[in-house]
Amino acid sequence: MLEIKNLHARIAEDGSEILRGIDLTVNPGEIHAIMGPNGSGKSTLSYILAGKEDYEITEGEILFNGENLLEMEPDERAAAGVFLAFQYPIEIPGVATMEFLKTAINAQRKARGEDALSIPDFMKLVKAKSADLNVTMDMLKRPLNVGFSGGEKKRAEILQMALLEPKLCVLDETDSGLDIDALRIVSEGVNKLRSPDRSMIVITHYQRLLDHIVPDVVHVLSKGKIVKTGGKELALELEKNGYADYTGAAA
């Protein structure tokens, strides 16, 4: 599904190196958790996968289903099945959430050579998926993320993911700012998307998210490199002992 080989990247504006040789393979159906201290490069990795232009790749490659992801524009990556759930979803005044969802779905369908959904079929689909995530019709009528609470923004974003049905879901600190109830709802929405044909990368600081979205593999990222890989028990170790044992490992 996803193969990252010796990936090095820096901030385009000032040349600061962030990723210093990432190697990562994610097979179909797997959930990989990436944990690490602030500034380790977790969010940078997610942005590069999605195609954010603020970064320059200086070495390495990323293959997605055998294709060179780095040669694709962000919209091409999305059409190929890459989805990024942001840590802080942005507000877009003037764009109704429902219209945004319809445009996104039909753009994906067009890229796959499929006909656009009719309005009745679209409404039926949205209502079914929204119910699972406690997303109300009032939320869908409002401008995208405008005036939403932190939990509402995350639920709306997981709704996008459920509707688009991507092949690779990258969740960048989806648990950030969520209370216990919102975390449960969002996690249940994510777990319903688990599939033998869909992979996920879950980026988080905390074990609590991984109590709900149980990973197959856990990686520790420090100073731009993966310095430790293990099973779900590794997250419990990090919760207990912190990152002190790993912060010097990538030097």
Automatic annotation (TrEMBL):
List, for all copies, the residue spans of the domain called ABC transporter. 2-248
Family annotation (PROSITE patterns): ABC_TRANSPORTER_1, ABC_TRANSPORTER_2
Gene Ontology MF, one: ATP binding
* Keyword terms: ATP-binding, Nucleotide-binding
Keyword set includes Metal-binding: no
Is ATP-binding among this UniProt entry's keywords? yes
Q: Which Pfam families match?
A: ABC_tran (PF00005)
SMART domains assigned: AAA
List the InterPro entries: AAA+_ATPase, ABC_transporter-like_ATP-bd, ABC_transporter-like_CS, FeS-cluster_ATPase_SufC, P-loop_NTPase
What family, per the record? Belongs to the ABC transporter superfamily. Ycf16 family.
Record-given protein name: Fe-S cluster assembly ATP-binding protein
Q: Which organism is it from?
A: Roseibium suaedae
- Taxonomic lineage of this organism? Bacteria, Pseudomonadati, Pseudomonadota, Alphaproteobacteria, Hyphomicrobiales
